[in-house]
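Incident review: delayed structure delivery

Summary: a single-chain prediction request sat in the queue longer than the usual turnaround. Root cause was a stuck worker, restarted by the on-call engineer. No data loss occurred. The affected request and its eventual output are reproduced below so the record is complete for anyone auditing the incident later.

Affected input:
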Amino acid sequence: MASTLDIDLLRSFAAVAQTGTLGAAAGRVGRTQSALSMQMQRLEDACGQALLHRTGRGVRLTPQGERLLVHAHRILQQHDEALADLAGAGLAGALAVGCPDDYAAAFLPHLLRDFARLHPLARVDVVCAPTPRLRERLARRALDVALVSLPWGEAPPAGTLPPLRREPLVWVASPGMQPADWNPLPLALSDPDVLDHRAAREGLDAQGRSYRVAYASGSLTGLVAVVRSGSAVAVLTRCAVPPDLQVLPPDAGLPELPLLGISIAFAGGKPSPLAQAFAGHVGDVLPTLK
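Output delivered after worker restart:
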């Protein structure tokens, strides 16, 4: 076992752990894939242990790699905080932030712009995905913090703050599309375990309305494209509805949809000062955004 661990090697290792592929990690740390692969070999040689299991679809951490990742996050955090403190320019370091597509479009530009002014030396890496996929990344510490959705009125799970804002789910269609003209009703929905997908199907089942999932997409862009084509209706958060689409009124005959809460969730363990600062900033700004 080496007596020292190189900061650059640990930073590259953390990027590999977060992205799951050498190619994506190489772009993040500004190296070629071959150079990054050599870095990982040097780190494994220094540790005297295999840290990565390479597969045809990417890489995953070995048990020893998982243990090192915990130490790497702590070492990098303290290293970057020391430099930022000496520079007198707020917190520094890398922060991996997750956000659903709909909140990213509506709120993230405001949140990131103001956070960058407060902490100009911080680097924020953003991953957009539905809440269940973000929670999976938080669980394996591939994200530090994430904006997540949860049913309004329900107690937040462990590691998740109380909701900061509520957003209604709404039925969305292209202008002129009449749901009453369709039987079964064609739906464009996200992943089956996402709250909007579940709310749509549970509401229609309770109503006894015939429907079919005609299109599925994990991205907001894909769902909006289908709705614009006039081929299906979707369920979106109100903040994410583009101005060229219509929010269907109650007299359209579709079931009422629930409210969602927007909250902040952390990876396991004690959040870093940078993650805590981001969460505090979101808590200050998000409730005020129109």
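Verification: The mean pLDDT is 89.
Action items: add queue-age alerting; document worker restart procedure.
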